[in-house]
Write a structure and sequence with these properties.
Helix content is 72%, strand content 0%. The two termini are 15 Å apart. The protein is globular. The protein is mainly α. The protein has 8 helices and no strands. The protein has one domain (2-24, 40-187).
């Protein structure tokens, strides 16, 4: 049990896909302008990563490896991710049209979020429980970093930032500082 907690915490804090491997920066930078869109996007991404991790691990271990067709892994995993994203988008559109409009183009773009593909490819050969722990940890880490960065961007908008640093430059500097902060968790794990 302790190992699973360590894996979960390590995936969320120490080996954060956004801050360490720089995966998923497009939606990360795109929806982090407001907390009202960052949190729902993080929750949707958490759902997609979790379900995709389970499905791709099962397909990898019970279809691709036994039939020696691992060369189809990438195509199959992208198809699974796209299907889960479509189901998630339809659910959000059905339950909350306002939220669907707020997330806009970034919701279908979860399909091309390289963080999700990175997670499922990284954990494909692990056991289902290990894959699930890393998947959930990575998803929670993505959401935490997205919400934290959204709060930091909101505070930056209120500050007098030099003209040359407004917009993307100060955002990337802030991401770098956030990554340094998360690096401090490495000593704890």
């Amino acid at each position: 049990m302790f190992d699973l907690v360590t894996i979960l915490g390590g995936a969320a804090l120490v080996n954060n896909f956004v801050l360490v491997q720089l995966l998923g920066l497009c939606p990360f930078m795109g929806v982090s302008n407001r907390l009202a869109t960052a949190l729902p996007m993080g929750i949707a991404t958490t759902f997609v990563i979790t379900i995709s991790t389970i499905l791709t691990n099962i397909l990898n271990n019970f279809l691709l490896i036994p039939y020696n067709i691992e060369f189809l892994r990438l195509v199959l995993f992208i198809t699974v991710i796209a299907s889960v994203v479509q189901l998630t988008e339809r659910y959000i559109k059905y339950t909350s049209k306002l939220l669907h409009q707020m997330l806009g183009i970034y919701l279908p773009l979860i399909t091309s979020n390289c963080a999700i593909l990175g997670v499922v490819l990284t954990v494909a050969d692990l056991s289902l429980i290990q894959s699930l722990a890393i998947g959930i940890g990575s998803a929670i880490g993505f959401t935490v970093v997205l919400v934290l960065f959204s709060g930091l961007r909101a505070r930056l908008d209120e500050q007098s930032v030099p003209k040359a640093f407004r917009g993307a430059p100060i955002a990337f500097i802030t991401v770098g500082m956030l990554a340094l902060g998360f690096l401090g968790f490495k000593g704890m794990m």
